[in-house]
Write a structure and sequence with these properties.
The chain is of the alpha/beta class. Helix content is about 40%, strand content about 20%. Strands 2-1-3-4-5 form a five-stranded parallel beta sheet, sandwiched between helices. It has a four-stranded antiparallel beta sheet with strand order 6-7-8-9, with helices on one face. Helix 2 packs parallel to helix 3 and helix 6 (about 150-160) packs across helix 8. It is elongated, with a radius of gyration of 18 Å. The mean pLDDT is about 90.
Length: about 220
């Protein structure tokens, strides 16, 4: 899943991104509202982690724009922690509001909760073809046996399971699992799928659809 973090404190933004990438999510970072609107216009994000008081374009206006589009969940993350501030943020259409200072573990839990409320709804545990995947607790198993997956392998498997048997194009996997700096001509996806197949064992469950992408039928 892909997340945009908008935070003008660069050190905090970097720490948030580093934490969320351990989940693992694909995370892009910007430090002002104008840059946020540019990214939102060109990329599809599942969750927007938005500081409210940001330069150039205020976080409230960024939130309004996202809500009008209706395809990205908004988690406001701000030092304005009073009841009136929280009510105002939610009134703008934000899905959740987390005041600073905060615990990173709570931030990731709230992001996972927003993803479960995404359209269409995502079940908390993904199951198919003998595979069980719990993104929030980062647990994976096949036929009850734990799977020791690396972050990107886990994320690719999660996207394939969310598709519920449909083909997931290679470019979609690159967009959802890696960030905006990924080279579209890289072979990193093919290598990751190869490693994932090896860890999943026999019989094979990840199918390649030539010229399109991958699926778990």
């Amino acid at each position: 899943m892909r997340i945009l973090v908008v935070e003008d404190e660069e050190a905090l933004a970097g720490a948030i991104a580093e934490w969320l990438r351990r989940e693992p999510f694909a995370v892009d970072v910007v430090h002002d509202g104008e840059a946020a609107l540019e990214r939102l216009a060109t990329n599809d994000y599942d969750v927007l982690v938005l500081d409210r008081d940001i330069p150039y374009v205020h976080g409230d206006e960024v939130c309004r724009t996202v809500v009008e589009r209706g395809d990205t969940r908004v988690l406001m993350l701000t030092a304005a922690a009073g009841v009136r501030d929280r009510v105002a943020g939610l009134a703008l259409g934000a899905d959740d509001y987390l005041p600073k200072p905060f615990a990173f573990v709570e931030l990731s839990a709230r992001v996972h909760a927003l993803l479960r409320r995404s359209r269409p709804a995502v079940p908390p545990v993904l199951r198919r073809a003998g595979l069980d995947l719990d993104p929030a607790r980062r647990l994976a198993s096949r036929d009850g046996a734990p799977l020791p997956l690396a972050n990107r392998e886990f994320a690719v498997l999660a996207e394939l399971l969310r598709a519920q048997g449909a083909v997931v194009p290679a470019e979609v996997l690159l967009e959802k699992v890696w960030d905006e700096h990924i080279d579209p001509f890289t072979n990193v996806l093919r290598v990751t799928v190869m490693k994932l197949r090896r860890k999943l064992g026999e019989p094979p469950v990840v199918e390649t659809v030539p010229g399109v992408g991958y699926r778990i039928p």
